[in-house]
Amino acid sequence: MQTKLADFIKNSPEGKEADAILRSCVHCGFCLATCPTYQILGDELDSPRGRIYLMKQMLEGQPVTRKTQLHLDRCLTCRACETTCPSGVRYGALVDISRGIVEKQVKRTLKAEVLRYSLRKILPNKFIFNGLLKIGRMGRWLAPGSLKKAIPAQPESAGEWPLACHARAMLVLDGCVQPTLAPNINAATARVLDKLGISLIKAEKAGCCGAVTFHLNAQQEGLDYMRRNIDAWWPFIEQHKAEAIVVTASGCGVTVKDYGHLLQHDEKYAGKAARISALAKDVSEILYAELADIQQRVDRQNTRIERRKLSFHSPCTLQHGMQIRGVVEKILTTVGFDLTHVPNTHLCCGSAGTYSILQPQLSQQLLKNKITALESGQPDQIATANIGCLMHLQSGTLLSVKHWVELVDERLS
Predict the structure, then answer these.
(1) Cα 353–chain centre separation
(2) Phi first, then psi: what are they for 310, rounded to 5°?
(3) Contacts for 300 with CB less than 8 Å, ≥ 6 apart
(4) What is the 3-state secondary structure (H, E, C) of the chain?
(5) 333-367 exposure pattern, b = at least 16 Cβ within 10 A, e = fewer
(6) pLDDT one-digit tens code per residue, 214-250
(7) Which of 113-117, 151-155, 280-284, 402-406 has the lowest mean pLDDT?
(8) β-pair partners for 313
(9) Are residues 354 and 386 in the same domain?
(10) Residue-level pLDDT at 141
(11) Domains in the chain, number
(12) Closest CA to 198 of 156, 234, 135, 245
């Protein structure tokens, strides 16, 4: 694609990156076939190719309007288009750059501003989020049906976290909303790794990965969260006390793996960020490397395993963002689950961070489609790999939805 970027951006690092991405696009349109919003709305401006045209016009200096903002807002950033694209267009990075520019040039309504500000101040702060959720749960019985459904039920307790006693140790991203909404996920991960001779440890001052704030277009604020995590983890890395950083939420994992890119122009943090990204692993990558040990443990207790039909939802951040496909499924079949066939596995469930709040109609349609697909094989249970997807899916089905690592923990107990 021929480009002629405007003076305000062409010589900046973001401009050079955007220019390279735009030039890699050959207008083939393969992305239209896998874009969730295009499939629902049928408007090319709600497809990757259409949005690329809008972004190109903006970066070349044409007026930016609410129309551009609307179509970029509707994008889930699921990155299914990147998996499909034969030219390797880095669409997600281009959207991040463009959204940051649009946010500065197009004023939102007061209602939209307040909502976005509230989301980026509440969700990354687990103390505020936890406090507000407790209040919501106490008054849940007074809420109308639609609001009552939106308030998550009390989760099961976390269970035991094993003491760090192994020669091998790994850090874990504690996260922001996950410790409140599903505290057992990281605890289950710690128990599984403990059985494999690996201690899972927390860095006290680490918190939100920065994704929520960054993707709400408060990008500098998001980068600050990333720097805070790097500072919290660095003593462990520098002293060789942790061989990896385990991330159990794929939405966070894809962001932590991108720290090196996002902070590449920060002189103080660029090197450290690159090192952190290299060490970051989705929990599935860790367990897959230990699959032989897991298989031996399963073989020893095979007579006690009850086979159950399980439907697995692979989050977009896992299969498109991190390009991890088939790994979780292999682990689940190894521990004795029978996986059902799920149609259109490449499509988003509609959670997409804060998308379910900011674009509720589109999100609910995507949720309905995804639940239909997941339930089509008549599973006993649904599993996924991201806390946002987990909560979103649970709101649309009567079946139990759990993080897949919790199910592995149950099988290895």
Answers:
(1) 7
(2) -130, 135
(3) none
(4) CCCCCCCCCCCCHHHHHHHHHHHHCCCCCHHHHHCHHHHHHCCHHHCHHHHHHHHHHHHCCCCCCHHHHHHHHCCCCCCHHHHHCCCCCCHHHHHHHHHHHHHHHCCCCHHHHHHHHHHHHHCCCHHHHHHHHHHHHHCHHHCCHHHHHHCCCCCCCCCCCCCCCCCEEEEECCCCCHHHHCCHHHHHHHHHHHHCCEEEEECCCCCCCCHHHHHCCCHHHHHHHHHHHHHHHHHHHHCCCCCCEEECCHHHHHHHCCHHHHCCCCCCCHHHHHHHHHHEEEHHHHHHHCHHHHHHHHHHCHHHCCCEEEEECCCHHHHHHCCCCCHHHHHHHHCCEEECCCCCCCCCCCCCCCHHHHCHHHHHHHHHHHHHHHHCCCCCEEEECCHHHHHHHHCCCCCCEEEHHHHHHHHHC
(5) ebbbbebbebeeebbbbbbbbbbbebbeebbebbb
(6) 999 999 999 999 999 999 999 999 999 999 999 999 9
(7) 151-155
(8) none
(9) yes
(10) 58
(11) 4
(12) 245
Half-sphere exposure of 183 (CA within 13 A, CB side): 13
pLDDT digits over 45-84, tens only?
Answer: 999 999 999 999 999 999 999 999 999 999 999 999 999 9
Residue 163 lies in a domain: no
Compute the C-alpha angle 44/218/358, nearest 5°: 50
Q: Do 244 and 328 reside in the same domain of the chain?
A: no
CA 109, 115, 118, 124 dihedral sign is negative
Domain boundary among 87, 121, 150: 150
The total number of residues written for the chain in this structure:
413
Contact 2, 59 (CB under 8 A): no
Beta-bridge mates of residue 339: 310
Tens digit of each residue's pLDDT (9 = 90 or more) over 176-227: 899 999 999 999 999 999 999 999 999 989 999 999 999 999 999 999 999 9
The dihedral built from the CA positions of residue 65, 67, 68 and 73, taken in this order, carries a sign that is: positive
Average pLDDT score over the chain: 93
Q: Are residues 282 and 172 in the same domain?
A: yes
